[in-house]
Specification:
303 residues, mainly alpha, 0% strand
Length: 303
Amino acid sequence: MPVTPRLVGLLAALGATVLWSGNFVAARGIAHDIPPFTLNFWRWLVALVCLLPLARPKFRADWPGMRRSWRYMALMGLLGVTALNTFVYKAAQTTASLNMALLVPTAPITIIILSRIFHEEPVTPRRLAGVLVVLLGVLILFSRGDWQALARVRFAAGDLWAFCGVVCFGVYSFCTRYRPADVSLEGFNAATFAWGLLLSLPGLAWEMAVLPSPEVSAKVVGGVLYVGIGCSFAAYLLWTKAITAVGPVLAGLVYYSLPLFTAVEAALVLDERIAPFHVAGGVCIACGIMIATWRVRPRAARR
């Protein structure tokens, strides 16, 4: 198979999704050991430290574009850094894992809606069919093959935080297509990380004033390093690359595979058993993504 920009973009989206799926495993382990703004602040500080060696050589060329588009950079920092995972970490304290899992895959729907409204991007029958097959896989995966489990779901107050995080991710992914052409990928991410950290300071100060200091342990440090290096530094570079190469809708469809990778990682890290419904759900998710993203070349082009 030839290595095309489209293939590279889809692989980048897949890599980011795999890394992000571990965020939920880490969150379950340390959500009650460190408050959400504090965890989010340290996560992005680690990510910025990792990114600066790559971004610093390009700052001179990037600075005019950064200065001209500072409002856009601040918005992206607010959506993708300050709000998104703070909402997720807050929700992890009070929301059942099944509820979270059912909400997370709805983010690409936000992308599709925004792309349709602002760019009149068509929702083709093939893409719609792919979305429906993927959603079927998600429901199989998180109902554990028992459809009655979905009827027993009760949404808690924390689900609102989770839903806000999902919407933030969808809007962030949609807006990434407007990245200034004269700002490098590394410079764009460094600017949004920095803006996100700056906008996180009020929440961090509030937690430091009213909550007890988090206990420093190997579990907390390891979780912060993973979400900082893997889920932030590496995953956001891959995701921005994916959006640039294939657009937010196709990248968002790949994001539907996140529940599958979360289940696999939970089995490896938390010793949870992989059951037949995991396989059935994973097959549906993979098939749905292929249906939605596969391009059929015209017959003349195949000759």
